């Protein structure tokens, strides 16, 4: 899916099969009669407003920025290389990705290192 981001930049947004099913359902269920709305039934900044309302209800940070930062951190925790994260997230340089992925702790990096090398969690030498 192509989305419009900050500064009028277009980005491709990957998603799962489950998300595709939900998006199709929203389009089916949403009868757009107002020409100022799009196929999703949202006006300009609709997603942003929806996230701010979610933040008010939950007390948790919910903004497009928070979701992008979390996206980067979660992919890094899962072991994805920062260059791939940069491309998937639409960042133009590694600087922002590196800033966002700093939240990954040493213990998480050590777990990935052990997993890659097939070592048990109690052994640094692999024996």
**Secondary-structure element pattern, one letter each:** EEHHHHHH
Q: What is the number of strand segments? A: 2
Q: Poorly predicted ranges (pLDDT <50, ≥5 residues)? A: none
Reported for the largest beta sheet, the result is: 2 strands, antiparallel
Taking all residues together, what is the mean pLDDT? 80
Instruction: Give the number of domains.
Output: 2
Structure class: mainly alpha
**Separate helix tally:** 6
**Shape summary:** elongated
- Helix content percent band: 40-55%
Question: Strands of the largest sheet, in order across it?
Answer: 1-2
Work out the radius of gyration: 19 Å
Give the amount of beta strand, in percent. Answer: under 5%
Tell me the distance between the termini.
46 Å
Structural description of this entry:
The protein is mainly alpha-helical and 127 residues long. The protein folds into two domains: 1-44, no CATH class; 61-127, no CATH class. Helices cover 54% and strands 5% of the residues. It is built from six helices and two strands. The chain has helices spanning 17-29, 46-58, 64-77, 82-89, 94-101, 106-117, and strands at residues 2-4, 10-12. A hairpin with a 5-residue loop joins strand 1 (2-4) and strand 2 (10-12). Helix 3 packs antiparallel against helix 4 and helix 4 crosses helix 5. The longest helix is centred in the middle third of the chain and has 14 residues, at 64-77. The radius of gyration is 19 Å and the shape is elongated. The model has no long low-confidence stretch (mean pLDDT 80).
């Amino acid at each position: 899916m192509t989305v419009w981001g900050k500064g009028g930049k277009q980005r491709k947004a990957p998603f799962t099969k489950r998300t595709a099913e939900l998006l199709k359902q929203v389009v089916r269920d949403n009868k757009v009669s107002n020409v100022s709305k799009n196929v999703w039934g949202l006006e300009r900044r609709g997603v942003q407003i929806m996230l701010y309302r979610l933040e008010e209800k939950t007390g948790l940070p919910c903004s497009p920025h928070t979701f992008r930062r979390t996206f980067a951190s979660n992919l890094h925790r899962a072991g994805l290389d920062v260059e791939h994260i940069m491309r998937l997230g639409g960042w133009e340089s590694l600087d922002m990705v590196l800033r966002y992925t700093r939240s990954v702790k040493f213990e998480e990096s050590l777990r990935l290192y052990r997993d890659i090398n097939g070592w048990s969690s109690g052994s640094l030498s692999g024996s």
